[in-house]
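Consider the following input, taken from an annotated entry for Xylose transport system permease protein XylH (Streptacidiphilus cavernicola).
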Amino acid sequence: MSEIDPNVTPPPAVPPPVDPRLLVREEGLKGYLTEFQRKIRGGDLGSLPVIVGLVIIWIVFSVQDSNYLTSANFEYIAYYMVGIGLLSIGLVFVLLLGEIDLSVGSVSGLAAAVFAVLSVSHGLNPWFAMVITLLTGAAIGALHGFVFAKIGVPAFVVTLAGFMGWQGFMLWLLGSTGTINLPTDSGPMRYLSGNSFFMGGDIAGGYILAGLGVAAYVFSAFGLQRRRRQAGVPYRPTTELALRTVILAIGSFGTAMILNDQKGVPNALVLFSVALIVTNFVLRRTTYGRKVFAVGGNIEASRRAGISVAMVRITVFSISGFFAALGGLTIAGQISSANQAGSDPNNLMLAIAAAVIGGTSLFGGRGMVWSALLGMLVIESINAGLYMLGLANSIQYMITGAVLLAAVIIDSLSRRTQKSAGRA
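Applying the prediction step yields:
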């Protein structure tokens, strides 16, 4: 039996994790500051880097052009971030598994082509055609997931093959002309076009949406607090929930006021917001969402816990395909046609960039669907600023690439810090 050398200093003990809700209840404001410092030291930066970056972007471009921080520019950003943002929502699910889906750009273009052929060429009811289109996207994603999960082909290879194959299928459907014009006065396209606003652009529409959003948060947050209190487990104090409600109300009603200064809240933005709320609930409040995080964090531990890893993988890729189709329909509504622009490879790159820039880790197990919103705000803010300054698209891609690289570096350093702190 080996003896303990008294001259050797034992390593410092790693302090047990502290539940922030207990800390806040015991220490009040000091508890918030302590928890914030603990997170920073532990590498848990959350959305802080992207929010700081977004503020810097707005300041820089507003100095260059006084018209940048205007309601007209924010209306532009709010509308044009939706199409690729929907693609990014689906990619967040895939990235949470530590995988990638390279097919979403082609699937989005194919979805627009399927919808155009069914509704325009064959005269099918546009709403029914939309349902078939969305189911087609989900089925394609499930096929990719099946080949990956059951046969064992790497997701990169499966979706790369899909990227090329579905692109060819789209071109075949569109025919020799390569484009099919879509009417924007009826069916889903009526609500996805640039001239479609909630309640016809009525000023009350934006405030009604803001009020509904705040009310939904209050109902969810205080309901969760009540359930946790009854179960005898830590819960967020009422003062914190009230503060969060005030901040959300300021942001929601402020956004409504800015958009109402122009034409109102675009219906496409309403769709995007609903998709974010629903998918966030699925990931954060359901058993399925916890399984997705578990598989992304540790596959072997998930298997031993009885989670069907194959099922999670297949359904996640199906969700990605569904949102690729929904995003494709939105992009088609923006340009009023189904053509090759819907499957532009840049859409795929920007959708991946948005998820990563917004805070979703490429290594799996960490992220949120709100990353799609934050990332697209960054990308479209850069795009709008460069457009106002009259700079070429090449500059936009270089800047976006630099921002993406910075986001991945921050993520890597954050994970390294968390490992050294014993939290990853």
